[in-house]
Amino acid sequence: MDIIITQWALDSYLDLKHSNAFTKDEYMNQIRPDVLLMKNFPNDPKFKVNNFWGPAIGVSPIPSGYKFKWHNMGNGQNQIRGPVGVFSEAFLCEAYVKKNAKQEKRKLEVFRSHLQMIQNGHYTECGRLI
Amino acid sequence: MKSQALAANFKMEMIDVGHTMKLAGLPDAFVTSAVELAFHFEGVYNLMKMWDEESEQDERDEIVADIQGLIEDNSQKETIEGVYVRFDDLDGIAKDIRKFKDNLRLIVDQKGGIGNLASLTSIPQPSLSRFFSSAAMPRRITLLKIAKALKLDQIQIATGWGR
Questions:
Q1: Do A124 and B76 lie within an 8 Å CB cutoff?
Q2: Strands A90-92 and A78-86
Q3: pLDDT tens digits in sequence order for chain A, 130 residues long
């Protein structure tokens, strides 16, 4: 499965990197290798680990929507979430630092809308993760 | 999305929320675009409901900024090949974008501030605040609205990282 980096993902990575939400080491040794597991989705056993991967649920479950969960990143206190739309390809969408349930629900409803735009072919691709 | 049978009720619900948004002082252009988008996007429908049920102003502002972002995203009607960025370049690009936005913010402040810019552009103030505080690439549509409102020339809004 190809892994597409959308403009929404790139923008959120710019913001997260700029605010030191994660370190270069964490990106290179955890985040990037984890995202690359999407190439073999859903075969890697990590996709069965609930505190690593799960369905995206906003007001209600989001069809084709999942999220990576990375814990204690950056200063050790950031809980980063990386929503992914899984169709015939995997679309990385906006990642965020989870602050509370209300904020996360809002972020995931934006993600739901972006998945609909992706299905309509209305999105910007900023490369593929290889 | 809501079922077809509920379509009329669902639309009326959004029109009611839109009316409440107008009473709360949000720009007409934002409210009409938000209501129209909610007719087609379940996520926007849910955000509108969340705004209506929310009691904290800060959280309402965040929802407004999210909806405005989606209104701007929805103006794109094709798949576009954007700029590929290597991880090692992220920091430098984020710094460039921050510098550009900080300089633009100085001009905005000289011309009446964000409140004035919000009324001139019909972009809700929370959305402009997010625009100026983030390191995200600025949307060209937003830059053009700001330039038009403040009578800025192309050089003042020129950035290598617009989208």
A1: yes
A2: antiparallel
A3: 999 999 999 999 999 988 999 999 999 999 999 999 999 999 999 999 999 999 999 999 999 999 999 999 997 889 999 999 999 999 999 999 999 999 999 999 999 999 999 999 999 999 999 8
**DSSP for A64-97, written as a single string:** EEEEEEEEEETTTTEEEEEEEEESSSEEE---EE
DSSP A104-118: HHHHHHHHHHHHHHH
Question: How many CB atoms within 10 Å of residue A41?
Answer: 15
Contacts of A103 in chain B (CB under 8 A): 59, 62
Tokens of B127: 């959305």
CB burial string B23-33: b at 16+ within 10 A, e below: eeebbeebbeb
How many whole angstroms separate alpha carbon B24 and alpha carbon B31? 11
Which one of B43, B74, B82 has the shortest CB-CB distance to A112?
B43
A-chain CB neighbours of B81 within 8 Å are 124-125
Q: What tokens does B13 get? A: 């619900």
- ipTM of this predicted structure: 0.95
What is the gyration radius of the CA atoms in chain A, in angstroms? 14
Interface test with A, best of B90, B127, B140 (most A CBs within 10 A): B90
SS3 of residue B63 by DSSP = helix
A110 contacts B80? CB cut-off 8 A: no
Q: What is chain A's percent helix, strand, coil content, to nearest 5?
A: 40, 30, 30
- Per the CB < 8 Å rule, is A7 touching B79? no
| DSSP letters for B74-136 | TT--S-EE-----GGGHHHHHHHHHHHHHHHHHHHHHTTHHHHHHHHH---HHHHHHHHH--S
Beta strands A124-128; A3-6: pairing state: antiparallel
CA distances from A52 to A33, A48, A75, A112 (A): 13, 8, 19, 20
